[in-house]
Amino acid sequence: MERDALPLDRRLRQETLFARERVYRFGQPTPLERLILPGPGPGPEIWVKREDLSPIKAYKWRGACNRMAVLTPEEATRGVVTASAGNHAQGVALAAKQLGIDARIYMPRSTPRVKQQAVKLHGGDRVEIRLVGDSYDEAVTAAREDERTTGAVYLHAYDDVQVMAGQATLADEVVLSGHGPFDAAYLQIGGGGMAAGAACWFQMLWPDTELVGVEGEGQASMKAALEAGEPVTLEKVDIFCDGTAVRKAGSLPFEVCRDTLARVETVSNTEVSRAIRVLWETLRCVSEPSGAMGLAAVLKNREALAGKRVLVVVTGANIDFLQLGLIAQSEGASATASRTLRVRIPERPGTMLALLDGCFEGLNITDFQYGKYHATEAWPVFTVTSDDDSQLAALPERLAVGGYEWKDLAGAVDVNFRAIPLREELLTSPLFLRLDFYERRGALHDFLDKIIRGRASFFYFNYRQSGERIGRALIGLDFETDEARDQFTATLPPRGEGYRLCTPLDAAAQHRILGA
Q: So what family is this one in (predicted)?
């Protein structure tokens, strides 16, 4: 029987065997590592396939190199064209340089700079990058037009049997590692090429392994396809996990995933951010968002998976440095459970400290935002964490007993963008302080209690925990008279117990904040 006439699953398995002979001309197998999940509570035994350690820091070198290795001499002369959000492009670039084939790569204009630079590094003079549109689909349209007008060979990022077979070599390495079989394998999905290739291989060799697809909540194209019975186009796609941001699942991957996956689960951006942190703290692995989706699903099902052996794939580490910083600052990346809430207190001296002394005792404040905008009441915003989940669960009851009105602000846009309101006309004798304090439990409270209590009232507070040993806050204090403010300033120690630096802002900086 001709190879192309074989059923898709048989052809894919056969092509995976052929891919073994090709892909290792371009790179070496990647390691499989045990991840010891931190507490509390029991969890699964997790093994991580480290595709972030591949030649392009992502798994897509496998499929791209396998596909380009089978181009005929005539096709190679025509050159290749492709579209990519970044990682497939690097695989094409790697193969183009080694095989001496010219490649034009269309990428969305929003492609992270780190991925653009990596394409140039791997491809050298053999590669030309063309930035088109704001989405992967627009890049595909432009690349297909290039194919039509120039005769170049189009290399699909996932809807191609030889690309899928190349990706399946990572599953082959897992099987050959000797650490399997696993009870479950969690495989992230963008267009579906990697999930289909790996699932087909695992199903043949480990038929009892549960195969679970993982997609982002705002980009679940394969889940939509399975529900509809065919690939469908999503109206909009969340691009936080940019490596899997695909509007429509591939037709060939859909056929394979339909017959191999037990189910498809979705994960939120918050859950992905938490998984990125776990990878860093356990394996010192820096994952791009899509690379952590499999682990995010495992963490989401931690209790149900307790005692089982599971496999996840870190599919890539090509993340923009600036995005990494934003993820680290996000609420989802917190190592412990957290709550963000706004609490109503009377606008008078001492009430803020009373709240901290009472309801928030024993909790860690990781974010504190407040600006005075009402004469008689205040609504400070706090994000609090605790190693003890029961303390967070008890917080609403504490607030109720204390007579405080409060609101949950999870995901609030104004809080995320730190839009802190402030009305200057409500102030009498304002003073701004820049405070650097030692980041340990109770240090900020001790400073406020010993230095501020009874001398002034807060009108502004801007603090966010950064993970450094030193916490930094901008504080606004309002005094009853200019004399009281001046006396406070004159006697304020620039350094003291629990804090490293406390200095008043100069007049120019204060005027800029107040708009004077």
A: Belongs to the serine/threonine dehydratase family.
List C-alpha distances in Å: 31 to 48, 51, 178, 189, 313: 8, 8, 12, 21, 11
Report the helix count and the strand count for the chain, using DSSP H and E.
Answer: 19, 19
> What's the whole-model pTM score?
0.82
Kindly state the tokens that stand for 39.
């507490």
Mean of pLDDT values over 347-363: 84
Q: Where are the beta strands (DSSP E) in 270-332?
A: 309-314
Question: Is the Cα torsion angle 445, 451, 457, 459 positive or negative in sign?
Answer: negative
287 with 316: CB under 8 angstroms? Answer: yes
- The boundaries of every CATH 3.40.1020.10 domain in the chain are 338-514
Name the architecture of domain 338-514: 3-Layer(aba) Sandwich (3.40)
Q: Specify whether the CB–CB gap between 121 and 56 falls below 8 A.
A: no
The total of other beta-carbon atoms located within 10 Å of residue 470's CB is: 13
Q: What is the per-residue pLDDT across 168-198, written as a single tens digit (0 to 9) for each? A: 999 999 999 999 999 999 999 999 999 999 9
- Token readout for 440 is 């340990």
Please choose, from the candidates 317, 318, 321, 277, the residue with its C-alpha nearest in 3D space to the C-alpha of residue 295. 277
Transcribe 374-400 into DSSP letters: -SSEE--EEEEE-S-HHHHHHHHHHHH
Give dist(CA 61, CA 92) in Å, integer: 7
Q: What is the pLDDT of residues 447-460, one digit of tens each?
A: 888 888 888 888 99
If residue 367 lies in a helix (H) or strand (E), which one and from where to where? Answer: strand 364-371
Instruction: Residue 201: name the closest of 173, 179, 231, 226 by CA.
Output: 173
**454, 475 contact by CB (below 8 A):** no
Find the helix or strand (DSSP H, E) in which 505 lies.
none
CATH fold group of domain 3-58+166-330:
Rossmann fold (3.40.50)
For residue 23, CA distances in Å to 15, 30, 94 come to 12, 12, 11
Contact (Cβ atoms closer than 8 angstroms) between residue 494 and residue 443: no
3-state DSSP call for residue 261? coil
Range 81-106 burial, b when 16+ CB lie within 10 A, else e: bbbbbbbbbbbbbbbbbbbebbbbbb
**Which residues of the chain does CATH 3.40.50.1100 include?**
3-58+166-330, 61-156
